[in-house]
Design goal:
The chain is α/β, with parallel strands linked by helices and 445 residues long. The protein has 16 helices and 13 strands. Strand 1 (30-31) and strand 2 (37-38) form a beta hairpin.
Length: 445
């Protein structure tokens, strides 16, 4: 019997296994003593919010909705508006207040503007939370805050329902939908696409919608994911422009009954084209890294709010064993200020322990021996552990960068560049590839 000749061909190199990224809904929710799921917020808070909504609608008094400017906030605001009218409130008694560019509901100008509307009830949604005086000065005004940003402190005297401690943390539109859908039989159907749009706006379009998130199969069957995701992109565009045209997005959303209606809105389309062009113009800025390699810093100058978009984009592309956070700083959005957005790098999403942007930013600021933290104010390191940022004066931002040691070379390591220069480590031949990151960052718009 003849033996087969041994195969002398080199076996192809085994493919590197694809990195498994945990889905947002895979996080285990909290449970009560009986094993029941506690989600999307405490039962007491949810019941309180429902009672507040019923009282608003029955009162026939003026109601002011104060939604955030993004898709999550605007969709939540429209869900509230439709729920109140379904419960009997007159549309003419419901008003909306859209916070100005670079401002928060805690600014005195905004508090005065809201109070001047003479509301009896105010519903603030997705605005982020911090310790503050009452939403408005009048003691006769009742306030409800619906939110999901990380905070344990809120404006004085407000009723609060927050999702931030109930994983997987619901977006504000999803939390609002869960509160409202049992208040009237039409809400679950008529507002399902609003919930989907707002949630995709914050969590991305790859979300699997597994429990405890609601089943959205019928929503995506009726409207399609593509239509919903395209509508999110259009809805977010006007507030990113230098004109900060949030009112256009709100009006378009309030008067539609399908995401498909947004896809042909001329103003939304022109705003998206404007933002896409600005993102492309700004996104080729080369990064600098903190000395420890954990933070990549991109610096841009734009009157448009494109820094969050660029941060999200580069967080999905930059890779390094050390990299944790992508930070994009915009020195052109507000005079004298730096608006910056941070995202967890995709390559760091499965790190153990998980990357916490808020904790990381506060740790850097804590290196200061003076009063930097105080001078940066309440708008530093707000938001979520995975997506944070801030608005701070230029001088304070430069001090923060100095504490990060941005642009400083890392200390030499064994087998590193210094040893290669001394000839102790063999180097590979220079790659002939011409399409490199260096060339990319050097592109001219």
């Amino acid at each position: 019997m003849k033996r087969k000749a041994l195969d002398t061909k080199e076996s192809p190199q085994a493919k590197r296994p694809k990195e498994l990224i945990q889905d947002y809904c895979d996080i285990q929710p909290r449970k009560d003593d009986d094993g029941g799921i506690l989600w999307p917020a405490s039962r007491e808070a949810i019941d309180g919010a429902k009672d507040f909504m019923r009282e608003c609608a029955a009162s026939k008094e003026r109601i002011l909705i104060v939604p955030d400017k993004d898709a999550d906030g605007l969709d939540a605001g429209v869900i509230i508006h439709r729920t109140l009218t379904a419960l009997g409130a007159e549309p003419s008694s419901i008003d909306v207040h859209l916070v100005g560019k670079g401002r928060s509901i805690h600014d005195e100008e905004e508090r005065k503007s809201m109070g001047d509307r003479n509301p009896k009830y105010i519903i603030v949604v997705d605005q982020g939370s911090r310790p503050a005086p009452p939403v408005v000065d009048s003691p006769d005004v009742k306030s409800l805050i619906i939110d999901h940003h990380l905070s344990d402190e809120f404006p004085k005297d407000a009723l609060v329902v927050s999702a931030c401690h109930y994983p997987p943390v619901a977006t504000s539109s999803l939390l609002t939908y869960e509160i409202c859908k049992t208040l009237h039989p039409d809400i679950a159907t008529s507002c399902g696409y609003l919930c989907a749009m707002g949630t995709h706006g914050d969590l991305g379009n790859t979300l699997k919608w597994e429990p405890p998130f609601p089943d959205m199969k019928e929503v995506f069957k009726t409207y399609t994911k593509k239509a919903i995701n395209d509508a999110v992109s259009l809805l977010n565009a006007p507030r990113r422009t230098a004109q900060f045209d949030v009112s256009t997005a709100w009006s378009a959303l309030l008067t539609t009954t399908s995401p498909k209606h947004l896809l042909t809105n001329p103003r939304l389309l022109s705003a998206r084209a404007e933002i896409n062009a600005e993102v492309e113009r700004q996104t080729h800025t080369a990064p600098k890294f903190s000395k420890d390699g954990k933070i990549a810093v991109f610096r841009i100058h734009s009157a448009a709010q494109v820094h969050p978009v660029i941060a999200t984009r580069w967080a999905g592309h930059l890779k390094s064993s050390k990299l944790e956070i992508v930070l994009v700083a915009n020195g052109g959005y507000l005079p004298g200020m730096v608006n910056f957005s941070c995202r967890v790098a995709r390559c760091a999403r499965n790190r153990d322990p998980p990357v916490d942007i808020i904790a990381s930013l506060k740790a850097v600021a804590g290196l200061d021996t003076g009063n930097l933290v105080v001078r940066m104010g309440e708008s530093f390191a707000r938001g979520h552990k995975e997506a944070s940022g801030g608005i701070i004066p230029v001088r304070e931002f430069e001090e923060l960068m100095a504490l990060m040691k941005v642009g400083e070379k890392a200390d030499p390591v064994v087998g590193g560049e210094e040893e290669r220069k001394r000839g102790k480590v063999k180097t590979v031949e220079k790659s002939p590839q011409k399409n490199t990151l260096g060339n990319y960052f050097g592109k001219k718009s």
